[in-house]
Write a structure and sequence with these properties.
- This is 3-methyl-2-oxobutanoate hydroxymethyltransferase.
- GO terms for molecular function: 3-methyl-2-oxobutanoate hydroxymethyltransferase activity; magnesium ion binding; methyltransferase activity.
- Catalyzes the reversible reaction in which hydroxymethyl group from 5,10-methylenetetrahydrofolate is transferred onto alpha-ketoisovalerate to form ketopantoate.
- One of its GO terms (biological process) is methylation.
- It catalyses: (6R)-5,10-methylene-5,6,7,8-tetrahydrofolate + 3-methyl-2-oxobutanoate + H2O = 2-dehydropantoate + (6S)-5,6,7,8-tetrahydrofolate.
- This protein is an alpha/beta fold and about 260 residues long.
- It has 2 domains: about 230 residues, Phosphoenolpyruvate-binding domains (TIM Barrel, Alpha-Beta Barrel); about 30 residues.
- The chain is about 45% helix and about 15% strand.
- The protein has an 8-stranded parallel barrel with strand order 1-2-3-4-5-6-7-8, surrounded by 7 helices.
- Strand 3, helix 5 and strand 4 form a beta-alpha-beta unit.
- Helix 4 runs parallel beside helix 5, helix 5 packs across helix 6 and helix 8 runs parallel beside helix 9.
- It is globular.
- About 40% of the residues are buried.
- Sodium ion binds next to loops.
- The site of sodium ion has 4 residues, from loops.
């Protein structure tokens, strides 16, 4: 199979074919999602929440992101694999940003990195791109700055914030980003950004006018108990499925019904 490239993603924007993206954090999930035909797999720092059980994305380390990325890369033969630079590995220091990005590329074999922020991190983005590493931007709700905002509610609802987001999106494009994620902003604002940029805009909670969509896979398959924001479409209730399977297994073990004659040597 032919590997998805930034060039192909750019062509998809031009032809109007929507880009499908989901997060993945391990080999097994990556093999299924890659088989299904996802265009992009994101090793998101949401691993901090859904894999490690932290309340925020801040604690996850570069080493941990690389570990997750290694498994995803081994499982993905077609999808373009993007890895989040974790909090503290790039902010305000372009040299450190570059060395973090290089570690991810070298040690995991991923195809690109994603960083949260706009004009403040343009220096870092340019430096990473100069080294030949594709960069995806991320604007709107940026979970690494949760303590600056205090909530995970919709962003850029007022005019000033919306203008800043548009400026940031243009700055990311000018810096050379191959795509930008817009998280949890009004659909009408995302529409304007998607129309004004020539690079793909991937939305999460940003309406239907983006060039592609991304969701956290654990949320999308219903494995994240009690998390159901408006933007989330839940395709499975895997929490209930696994609960039922685990309970059936317990019952069989207790009843001495497992293993049976065929399930032994
Ligand atoms: O870490 C993550 O899952 C993300 C997506 C929500 C875009 O950054
Ligand atoms: Na992220």
């Amino acid at each position: 199979v032919k590997r998805i490239t930034t060039h192909i993603l750019q062509e998809m924007k031009q032809s109007g074919e929507k880009i499908s993206m989901l997060t993945a954090y391990d080999y097994s999930m990556a093999t299924v999602l890659d088989d299904a035909g996802l265009d992009v797999l994101l090793v998101g720092d949401s691993a901090s929440n859904v894999m490690a059980g932290h309340e925020t994305t801040l604690p996850i380390t570069l080493d941990q992101m690389i570990y997750h990325a290694q498994g995803v890369v081994r499982g993905a033969t077609r999808a373009f694999v993007v890895v989040d630079l974790p909090f503290g590995s790039y902010q305000g220091n372009s040299k450190e940003a570059l060395s973090s990005a290089i570690r991810i590329m070298k040690e995991s074999g991923a195809h690109g990195v994603k960083l949260e922020g706009g004009t403040e991190i343009v220096d870092s983005i340019e430096r990473i791109i100069t080294a030949g590493i594709p960069v995806m931007g991320h604007l709107g709700l940026t979970p690494q700055s949760i303590y600056k905002f205090g909530t995970y509610t919709v962003r850029a609802k007022d005019e000033a914030e919306a203008e800043k987001l548009k400026t940031d999106a243009m700055a990311l494009q000018d810096a050379g980003c191959f795509a930008v994620v817009l998280e949890k902003i009004p659909a009408v604002l995302a529409k304007g950004v998607a129309e004004s940029l020539h690079i793909p805009v991937i939305g999460i909670g940003a309406g239907p006018h983006c060039d592609g969509q991304v969701l956290v896979v654990n949320d999308m398959i219903g494995l994240t108990k009690g998390f159901k924001p408006r933007f989330l479409r839940q395709y499975l209730n895997l929490y209930e499925e696994i609960l039922g399977a685990a309970q059936a297994y317990i019952k069989d073990v207790k009843a001495n019904d497992f293993p049976n004659e065929k399930e032994q040597y």
